[in-house]
Amino acid sequence: MTFTGFIGRVCTFPLRAIIGASIALGIHPNVLTLIGVLVNIGAAWALGYGRFMLAFAIMLVANIFDFIDGKVAYQLQLQSRFGAFWDSTLDRFSDLALLTGLIFLYSKLGRNDYVMVAALALIFSIMTSYARARAESLVPKCKVGFMERPERIVLFMIGAFTNRMAAVLWVILVLSILAVANRTYYTYLALNNLPAPRRDGPAGVFWRAFFWTDERATIPYDLWVIAILAFVWLTPPDWLGDPMAHDRGLIAWIGSRL
């Protein structure tokens, strides 16, 4: 049991009652998906006006719907190709809405640097999903790259709750660029019948970290999560020129106690 796996199980437990209620009421999973997107638009509004704690609360509600729609579809035997298309398409709207809210916020603050960071994060977040969809029209599967939608959403929530959105945006941007590169390279290897990079030896450690093929809730996944959280929480906001966080950061707080 990894710690991310444990957290996943703990979070899933209270959702069972909501899933059961949705099934009992016969709510169509496509309706649940739509509700989740509409609620996320409210989170985008809150982000746009710098109300991060409100945005966190709204995102928490929105992603309950985002999580349960597939479970409800399975239980009610309502899985369909259109349902998969509907879910994937509306997920992109949610991603676009949240990042557009941040672009609006930073433009109001006159922070063109973070307008660009958020815009690039938006572009590469969408390209991450597009690269997989396009690759899987050519090869059977292209599920490589660390920064997928669940990771982005959790990071948005962490950034809003702890007022560390600047650090979160940098993580999303850099790892989304890496995910697009991973999927491009993987597709090239698959189409040319070439082997994947070896995962043993010193070079293997590098490839395992930066050519991401591991599953969630594994030890390598936990290590990446720890590294990301350390960067988000330990990097002083001033180092990143964070437009919203004005405290000295966790490193300075720890230093003052020592």
Tally of helical segments: 11
What pattern of helices and strands is seen along the backbone? HHHHHHHHHHH
Distance between the termini: 34 Å
Q: What oligomeric state best describes the polypeptide chains here? A: single chain
Provide the structure class: mainly alpha
State the helical fraction.
over 70%
Low-confidence stretches: none
SS strand fraction: under 5%
Largest sheet: none
Determine Rg (CA atoms, Å). 19 Å
What gross morphology would you assign? globular
Q: Return the average pLDDT rounded to an integer.
A: 92
DSSP, total strands:
0
Describe this structure in words.
The structure is a single chain. By secondary structure, the protein is mostly helical. The protein contains 11 helices and no strands. The chain has helices at residues 3-25, 29-48, 52-75, 81-108, 112-135, 149-162, 165-191, 201-210, 219-234, 237-240, 250-257. The mean pLDDT is 92.
